[in-house]
Amino acid sequence: MMKKYLLAFVAALMAISVWGQSSSEHLRFKGVPITGTPESFARRLKQKGLTVTQTDRDGVLLTGSFAGYRDCSITVSSSKNRNTVSSVSVAFPSRNSWRELEGDYSNLKSMLTTKYGEPHETTEMFEGSTAPKTDEDRIYKVRFDQCKYFSIFRPSKGRILLQIVHYGTENCYVLLSYIDEINYGISYAPVIDDL
After folding, report:
1. Is 37 helix (H, G, I), strand (E, B) or coil?
2. Residues 116/72, Cβ–Cβ less than 8 Å
3. What order do you get walking across the sheet with 158-167 strand by strand?
4. 3-state class of 45 per DSSP?
5. 161 near 109, Cβ under 8 Å?
6. Cα separation of 161 and 157, whole Å?
7. Distance between CA atoms of 3 and 9, rounded to whole angstroms?
8. Bridge partner residues of 125 (DSSP)
9. pLDDT of residue 192
10. Which residues, 6 or more positions from 159, have their beta carbon under 8 angstroms from its beta carbon?
11. How far is it, in rounded angstroms, from Cα 50 to Cα 64?
12. Using DSSP, how many helices (H) and how many strands (E) does the chain show?
C-alpha cells in the first residue's frame, strides 16, 4: 500500500517537474508562457485583464492595457500549419506627432533594456536625401516608409522586436512583438528542409 502512494507521489512530482520545465522553456508575455492554442493562451490573457474582441483561423485579437499604456491591440498569432501560439504583438495607440511616437518608442525601449539588457541590434534613422527638421517632416517620413526605427532584444527563449510602424498614411504607432523561439522554430522546420 505504501509503495502505491509513493509511486503516485513520484509520478505527480515528475508531472509537475515536466510541466514546469516546458512552460519555463518558452518566452513569456504578461507572465504567461507563449505556448498552447491561441484560444487557451487568450483565456490566460483574459484573466490578466485583457478583452477578446475577435477570434479566427489566424489567431486572436485582444484589447486592453499593456506596460502602462491604455487602448492597446494585442494579436496572438499561431504558427503555420499548427494550432500553437508562436508570437504575440502589441500595437500601441496611434500618434499624430513624432514627439509622442518617439516618446512611446523610447519609453518602451528603456523598460525593455531594464528587463532584458541592451538591445542586440538597433537602427534609428530616417532615409532620403534630406534630414527631417520638424515634427511634421519626421511623421511624414514615418507615413511614407522613410523611417527605420527598431530595436531587437534577444532573451534566451526568443526574440522581442520594438519598432515604429504605420498602417496607411494616418496611423503611426509603436509595435512590440514577442516571438517564442521553440514554437516559431517548430512551425518553420518543414519548410527549412525545402531550402
Report:
1. coil
2. no
3. 51-56, 59-66, 69-78, 85-91, 171-180, 158-167, 147-153, 121-126
4. helix
5. no
6. 13
7. 10
8. 148
9. 55
10. 152, 153, 178, 179, 181
11. 5
12. 5, 10
User: 106 with 127: CB under 8 angstroms?
Assistant: no
Tell me what pLDDT residue 80 has. Answer: 64
The residues, any chain, with a CB within 8 Å of residue 5's CB and separated by 6 or more, are none
Q: Which amino acid is at 142?
A: V
Q: What is the band of 22 on the pLDDT scale with cuts at 50, 70, 90?
A: very low
Helix axes 135-143, 98-116, angle to 10 degrees: 70
Closest C-alpha to 130, from 139, 122, 138, 119: 138
Residue 131, pLDDT above cutoff 60? yes
Q: Which residue has the cell 523561439?
A: 181
pTM, rounded to two decimals: 0.83
CA angle 99, 93, 106 (to 5 degrees): 45
Query: Measured at the alpha carbon of residue 73, what is the angle toward residues 115 and 177, in degrees to the nearest 5?
Result: 40
pLDDT at 12 > cutoff 70: no
Mean pLDDT value across residues 165-169: 92
Residue 148: predicted pLDDT: 97
Q: What distances in angstroms separate CA 43 from CA 66, 81, 124, 153, 192, one per listed residue?
A: 16, 22, 36, 27, 32
